[in-house]
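Justification of resources, computational component.

The compute hours requested in this renewal are based largely on the per-chain cost of generating structure records like the one below. Each record pairs the submitted sequence with a full structure-token output. That output is archived, and it is also reused by downstream analysis tasks.
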Amino acid sequence: MTYRRIFAALAFVLLATATTPVVSADTNTITIRNFAFSPNSLTVTAGSVVTWKNLDGEPHSVVSDQGLFRSEALDENDSYNFKFDKPGTYGFICSIHPTMRGTIVVK
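The structure output for this chain reads:
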């Protein structure tokens, strides 16, 4: 075997087994699944946009307990976004299923 073939084989093995870390494009996403927000607590910096995405077959909403924001009913695969400009702690619920609760902490 020539050095060229050895090098080509080694390069193929390295490329075939290389892994690239998967980094979420949007780490400020809260999913809604199985009648729960996940994560149910999220810490972001001021000026961040938080996205809620409904992955349940049932409609859900996202409503601030301080009256700051309110989504319409989100069907499956619908999303809602809100930009948090000021530091603080913001609670939210699903108004359709009020036992579903979560918190956004803005630093």
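The beta strands are 29-33, 36-38, 41-44, 48-54, 63-64, 79-84, 88-93, 101-106. The domain at 23-106 is CATH 2.60.40.420 (Immunoglobulin-like).
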